[in-house]
Structure formats: structure tokens, C-alpha cells
Design a protein that fits this description.
With 246 residues, this protein is α/β, with parallel strands linked by helices. The chain has six helices and eight strands; from the N terminus they run E-E-E-H-E-H-E-H-E-E-H-E-H-H. Strands 1-2-4-3-5-6 form a six-stranded mixed β-sheet, sandwiched between helices. Strands 7-8 form a two-stranded parallel sheet. Strand 1 and strand 2 form a beta hairpin. Helix 2 crosses helix 3. The longest helix has 14 residues. It is globular. The chain starts with 26 loop residues before the first strand and ends in a 6-residue tail after the last helix.
């Protein structure tokens, strides 16, 4: 099956929603601890951003974007969470039109979809979240977590965007569970940490199951294919084009 490559060369100049810095544009530092099952205990520090603008509010509720970091940001250090992606953009002062949840994975662990889902339920319960507009993205280890979480809970998200990751465990066995989920995957062709073939293989399998998953491969990028992706306003516009009724 022929692969479709989308090469993007877009210079980021700011979001089309609101470009000015906001005095209320903060990310609160929080911690969520809960015993879910005998073998699973959730203990995630997390940053939470509530938009200062109401331009994406529908019926009093905001869209929610969940960001999963990579392996280098694990631990208990809120500043590490601001190194990349949406938390970095918010920390820079840009207005960001999503409630944004950025959990932190414990040291020497990987993302656990069951634990993450418990945290998400807590956020939905306590904040004005539009449950039809929940989006998920992650980079490297966070992209693995993005694939895993979406596969295990396919009705939770309106769209996902995994960046330079893969899924060695689930995508081969259960592509049909997310074949109707809007997906935009990204990878650098020169990645020597997570091979680009990981993403290509998943996309190929999904397309064989009827998915119209989008794939962007940056021809000159190495492992860091996330900076260009998260600095691209088109990604956030694409998220907001999608909603579900689950």
C-alpha cells in the first residue's frame, strides 16, 4: 500500500486564536493519588491550565487537551513538564484555548492507561470540560502512551496526535478499535531513537482497516519532531475540527 507523506514547512508566528500574553495564563501545580486496583496505584503530579479566553467555550465547557511527555521528563519536577509541547507554549505566555492537562510519569515507569484514565475522570468531574472535545497527544514515550490509551479507551477521545512514538504491544492486534478515530501521526525521517518505521507500520495497518489516519514525516528531522509539530497552529485547528458523541 502506498504511503502518503505530508511535508510541512510552516513558520510558527502564534496561534490564530489569541496572540497576546495573558496575566491569568497560568498552569496550577497539582498531585493526584488514588489506589485503583490491588496492583495499580495512581500517583501523578500534573499541571493544569484553564484558559483565560472563552472563545472555544460551548455551552459553558472548554475543550480539553491532554499532553504526555517523553521519558526524559519523568519524576516529580513541574519545571520539567514545561520543557516541551503545550506546557512550554503556555509557560511562554501564549493564550492557549484548551483546558490543558499535563501529567508527570514517575521515574522508571511508563504511562499506564488505566491510571491515566482515572486522572482524566477526576479532571472531568471537577472542571468544565466538554466531554465531546477531549484530545490526546504525546511525544516519544508519550506517543507510545497515546497509542496505548486510545486503543484501550477508544471512545474517550475526539482525536489524537502521537509524535515520534510507536506501539509494540497493541496496535498490531487491535487496530480496528481506533480505525474510526481521527489520528494525525508525526515522525522525523532521521530519528535514531525511535525508528520512523514504527509509525509507518502502525499507519499502514490502520489504513488497511479503513482508517484515514494522517501521517506527517519531516524529511530532515531526527528524534525531535515535536518542536515543529507543537509550534504549528494547524495542529490545534485540526483538533478543534473534531468532536464525538460518546
Amino acid at each position: 500500500m502506498n504511503q502518503t507523506y505530508f511535508f510541512l514547512f510552516i513558520l510558527f508566528t502564534g496561534f490564530p486564536f489569541a496572540l497576546k500574553a495573558q496575566s491569568q495564563n497560568i498552569q496550577s501545580e497539582n498531585r493526584f493519588s488514588k489506589k485503583v486496583q490491588l496492583e495499580i496505584e495512581v500517583d501523578y503530579p500534573y499541571l493544569l491550565h484553564i484558559p483565560s479566553s472563552d472563545e472555544t467555550v460551548i455551552n459553558g465547557n472548554w475543550p480539553l487537551l491532554v499532553f504526555l511527555h517523553g521519558s526524559g521528563e519523568r519524576g516529580v519536577d513541574y519545571d520539567l513538564l514545561k520543557k516541551h509541547g503545550p506546557p512550554k507554549i503556555i509557560a511562554s505566555g501564549k493564550d492557549f484555548p484548551f483546558i490543558t492537562l499535563s501529567p508527570q510519569c514517575p521515574l522508571n515507569q511508563r504511562w499506564d492507561p488505566i491510571a491515566l484514565n482515572e486522572l482524566l475522570k477526576e479532571i472531568i468531574h471537577n472542571h468544565p470540560v466538554d466531554k465531546s472535545r477531549i484530545y490526546l497527544t504525546g511525544l516519544s514515550m508519550g506517543a507510545y502512551g497515546t497509542w496505548d490509551w486510545a486503543i484501550q479507551y477508544p471512545n474517550t477521545f475526539a482525536a489524537i496526535a502521537p509524535i515520534c512514538g510507536g506501539d509494540d504491544r497493541n496496535a498490531w492486534n487491535a487496530p480496528q478499535t481506533i480505525s474510526e478515530l481521527p489520528i494525525w501521526a508525526f515522525h522525523g525521517a532521521m530519528d535514531n531513537v525511535v525508528p520512523v518505521q514504527n509509525t509507518i507500520n502502525i499507519v499502514k495497518r490502520l489504513r488497511e482497516n479503513g482508517s484515514d489516519v494522517k501521517l506527517t514525516i519531516y524529511p530532515m528531522a531526527g528524534h525531535d519532531s515535536w518542536t515543529e509539530t507543537y509550534n504549528n497552529p494547524k495542529l490545534y485547528e485540526w483538533f478543534l475540527e473534531h468532536s464525538n458523541s460518546n
